[in-house]
Amino acid sequence: MKEAIYSQKVEFGDCDPARIVWFPNFFRWIDAASRHFFVECGVPPWHETERTLGIIGTPLVDTHAKFVKTASYGDVLQIHTSIAEWRGKSFVQRHRVMRANSEGAAGGADLIMECDEVRIFAARRDGEPTAIRALPVPEAIRKLCE
Amino acid sequence: MKEAIYSQKVEFGDCDPARIVWFPNFFRWIDAASRHFFVECGVPPWHETERTLGIIGTPLVDTHAKFVKTASYGDVLQIHTSIAEWRGKSFVQRHRVMRANSEGAAGGADLIMECDEVRIFAARRDGEPTAIRALPVPEAIRKLCE
Amino acid sequence: MKEAIYSQKVEFGDCDPARIVWFPNFFRWIDAASRHFFVECGVPPWHETERTLGIIGTPLVDTHAKFVKTASYGDVLQIHTSIAEWRGKSFVQRHRVMRANSEGAAGGADLIMECDEVRIFAARRDGEPTAIRALPVPEAIRKLCE
Amino acid sequence: MKEAIYSQKVEFGDCDPARIVWFPNFFRWIDAASRHFFVECGVPPWHETERTLGIIGTPLVDTHAKFVKTASYGDVLQIHTSIAEWRGKSFVQRHRVMRANSEGAAGGADLIMECDEVRIFAARRDGEPTAIRALPVPEAIRKLCE
User: Fold this and answer.
1) Which one, of B128, B119, B126, B129, lies nearest residue B37 by Cα?
2) Mind telling me how many Å the CA of A122 is from chain D's nearest CA?
């Protein structure tokens, strides 16, 4: 199973008045990690797949996240991303956000949060500029990612 | 059961190259809707509760979201927020994001996404500037919100 | 000279560990105020003007902002937007961000920040998906905005 | 004159429906580059300087930015940051955002945007949680940065 690692430094402006990462920022980074996974596997950028396969991206249909520890500015995070499950018209992408600049009780990096996403390969619906529909998972892309 | 409604207009910059709302923005708005709920119920701002109750906010420990329809700029969203469950040291806050400028098949507003969050009332841990701990749900706050 | 007013509530997550608005958020709101001005003047959304006039939006070429007072969560801001100058292929849009929930020394609303932007009406360059060029200011749009 | 370089990859979600970087994101990155400069020069994090010098950060009082070329997702940006001028109670920080994955006509990296910021070293005003005031530029910090 392929895994990609996306690194992200936490900045001052990513934190809120409680001085910890404001949680929507985790989703910004996880979305970048999601695309990074496909890039690392050799999948072309979405503006290319739009022309070749009709795929405009991999929008979310479901996400479930657990927040384990807080992070703050100065921390360096590493997001470990893999595909946990392939389905007919969707897939489950798993992200584990670790703090690279620390060690947890067991001697490994601290787990900050983890997230399972259900995503689809989306195409536009004809004639509606913002409506999308799920395509069957393309074999060519699946092979690159396994 | 109390419900608060938070309105949010979708802007051009909230949308991504696929021309639909970039999903982390939903979490920005839901976080605002979460705090809006407490304000509507009469709970003071967190910089006040920090002094009076030691509460610095209500950070997330778990969130589960389903994305039903896309939204784009020009849309007006209404987020319906309530407390679905009170637990000893946490609570479940439920958010339903509806498109106010449209009607679904059943004649009501379109459901765009929905989200169940588990949140805590957090205090700082002594001596650690960014570490937090969960407090028992304060009775006074619970009464204001029921 | 037409003026449009865009209202924006400051949220907890818009503020940084210093508890004041993290300044890039002002530019998010000003960009929304910029588009709001055109909408209020009757200019169609950019996905329509892309089809009719080839205009994909009004990207910035220059911005100059002064930050006068801080704002924090709970504040309600009003952004007063107008066109200060029309040029051949660009225009100067002026934004004044006032705090609506306060009064300054002179009895009026507090000025929080102000910003002069130079923007263009942009079209795509042929064959380059992300390259843009400035169009002459369209007479029809200028008339709507004066 | 010291210079620090801050690297930033442009992500899908940083781009707007015109497929180019939504400009407020440049200010997010420049703010990170501003703090990165001080960190590289050996200045402690703001939560430490708050205790030692009363300095909570370096908020903006004025910024002037020119946008020269567009950037899009997949681009790698390098922000070159230096102090262009020291004043009594403020300083001018200069940022040049270059595209590292490309070459301009002259054979060097493309200039994407540049920005001169006037910032202050800020302390809290007594008794007002969100009001700030400018301190004289601390000699110790200035020496680290020259």
Assistant:
1) B119
2) 15
pTM across the whole model: 0.93
Residues D42-64 as b or e (16 or more Cβ within 10 Å = b): ebbbbbebbeebebbbbbbbbbb
- Domain span at residue D94 reads 3-145
CA distance A49 to A41: 14
Contact partners of D by the rule of 3+ C-beta pairs under 8 A?
A: A, B, C
Tokens matching residue C42: 């009757």
How far, in Å, CA of A33 to CA of A60, rounded? 13
Give the closest-approach CA distance of C73 to chain D in angstroms: 10
d(CA B20, CA B6): 20
Q: Which residues of C touch D60 (CB under 8 A)?
A: 23, 65, 67
Tokens coding C100? 């609506």
φ/ψ region of B41 (left if φ > 0, alpha if ψ in -120 to 50, else beta) reads alpha
Question: If DSSP codes are grouped into helix, strand and coil, which group holds residue B86?
Answer: strand
Q: What is the DSSP letter of A139?
A: H
Binary contact (D13, B22; C-beta < 8 A):
yes
The structural domain count of chain A equals: 1
* Residues of chain A contacting C73 with CB distance shorter than 8 Å: 17
Give the CATH number, domain containing residue C97.
Answer: 3.10.129.10
Element (H, E) at A60: strand A60-67
CA distance C7 to A88: 45
> Tens-digit pLDDT profile for chain C (146 aa)?
899 999 999 999 999 988 899 999 999 999 999 999 999 999 998 889 999 999 989 999 999 999 999 999 999 999 999 999 999 999 999 999 999 987 766 667 899 999 999 999 999 888 776 778 999 999 999 999 99
